[in-house]
Amino acid sequence: MAAGVVGTAAIVPYLEATTRQLMAVATVLSSLHPAVPALLFLGERLNRHQGFGLACAAPAIRPIGRRRR
């Protein structure tokens, strides 16, 4: 039930971003969406390559979000 609530809560900002034409932000955040619930709620562990990928992606979110047309 918690995963459903979190998933629904994630869809609302995604839809808001798409209506405001912030597709770059919405795309980046939605691509990271599967990793967060898996780590927080399912107790999955990252291997070295997955951890490196998330570590590289995390700092890129802020500059993409700040970029304006």
Characteristic key phrases:
69 residues; mainly alpha; 77% helix; 0% strand; flat
Structural class label: mainly alpha
End-to-end C-alpha gap? 39 Å
Question: Which sequence of SSEs, written as H and E, runs from N to C?
Answer: HHHH
Low-confidence stretches: none
Strand content: under 5%
Mean pLDDT across all amino acids: 77
Taking all Cα atoms into account, the compactness measure Rg is 13 Å
Instruction: Tell me the number of helical segments per DSSP (H or I, 4 or more residues long).
Output: 4
**Quaternary structure annotation:** single chain
How helical, in percent, are the residues?
over 70%
Question: How many β strands by DSSP?
Answer: 0
Describe the sheet with the most strands: none
Gross morphology is flat
